[in-house]
Here is the input.
Amino acid sequence: MNKPDTLEQFRQQTTDWIAQHYPPQLRPTPGASGEDPRQLKIHEADWLALLAKQGYLAPSWPREYGGAGLSDEQVRVLNQALRKAQVRSPPISAGLSLLGPVLLEHGTPAQKAQHLPKIARNESFWCQGYSEPGAGSDLASLSTRAELEGDEFVVNGQKIWTSHADAADWMFCLVRTDREAPQHEGISFLLIDMSTPGISVAPIRLISGPSAFCQTFFDDVRVPKDNIMGQLGQGWTLAKQLLQHERQALGSIGRGDARRALTLPELAAQEIGINAAGQIADPVLRDQVAQCELDSLALRLTMSRSADEARAGQGSAHIASTLKLYGSELTNRRHELMISLRGADGIGWEGPGFTPAALRTTRQWLRAKGNSIEGGSNEIQRNVIAKRLLELPE
Ligand SMILES: Cc1cc2nc3c(=O)[nH]c(=O)nc-3n(C[C@H](O)[C@H](O)[C@H](O)COP(=O)(O)OP(=O)(O)OC[C@H]3O[C@@H](n4cnc5c(N)ncnc54)[C@H](O)[C@@H]3O)c2cc1C
Here is the structure.
């Protein structure tokens, strides 16, 4: 691509690039039922690789770290073009959406050079080692400990609910480095290579079958001292900052622009039919679909406004809690509605009687329930909003 002189030129170039490169097989077709999930995965991987090559997985990161070096305005135009073309958004990944922004700000030059380009090219896969059996909502009570011996930390303990730990190359991990210090001050932030001897991972089976969840055990795991991010004992500040990015990312799911299947209005038109005026035939469902679409639009605008405020150094970092709370509730409402629209087909779990698209709806509906827990439960977000944003008394 030639370097564009104006934002409008950039918009045109980006729009043309998407039109030229987006695999047509990924465009959902109303009425189609026989999509082959394996083929879709291949086309999805191709699309992801193209985005990565262009630096569009981390568009605002500097080029030296695998990003596209875009300005804030250009990132916004890129996102608008992707949304307008209704392409599939890349999945939220722990490396790109959570660790990357914090590493950019707090990583040492060596850490940034080692990790950021691989994250931006989707070549290294990260997991998040925060929760423990005795530390979830009350995360600061975590007890996995890391003791400094020469040039290495020796880590012992256990993490739980570590999504995709069994597939991850690296983990960003909260460890207790000082048991005498006040709770929040004895925590450090370590980057741990998952192939280090002493780490074992046990996938967790749920009532629904295999899941992404794992337990991760550390038994005398030796981690180079240089893998600490930030200062010793100051990991809590970084951990909280990362959680803001996680909450923002989780809230963004509620915008409903992750194009994986039919949009809500398309699904409604397919399942319910349209009347002579071109509207969804059932007036009650039409109203619910319209409300959901309007609320998604309002969330998108609010997210964009809060991003502007953040860039201008205004607003509160705790707005991420509001976005996460609202976005996850909206996602749940959207999936409830999709289940209603599919009628009896919406409650299938497996078997030949259901189309792959209908089965995906059921699974996505169940998965959406987790959005109200991960990244800090919605009760915790309400507490943060009450305390930090509304400044209500304890
Ligand atoms: C889909 C999914 C993916 C996840 N992935 C990861 C991951 O990759 N890495 C990781 O480290 N963790 C992960 N988690 C774990 C997640 O961060 C925790 O489940 C979450 O923080 C809640 O902790 P807990 O499960 O221990 O529940 P608890 O803290 O025991 O809470 C139980 C209930 O009590 C409520 N509660 C607790 N304290 C309060 C309070 N002060 N006020 C009001 N209500 C309260 C909670 O809202 C909840 O309803 C994931 C969770 C889910 C669902």
Remarks:
- The chain has a mean pLDDT of 92.
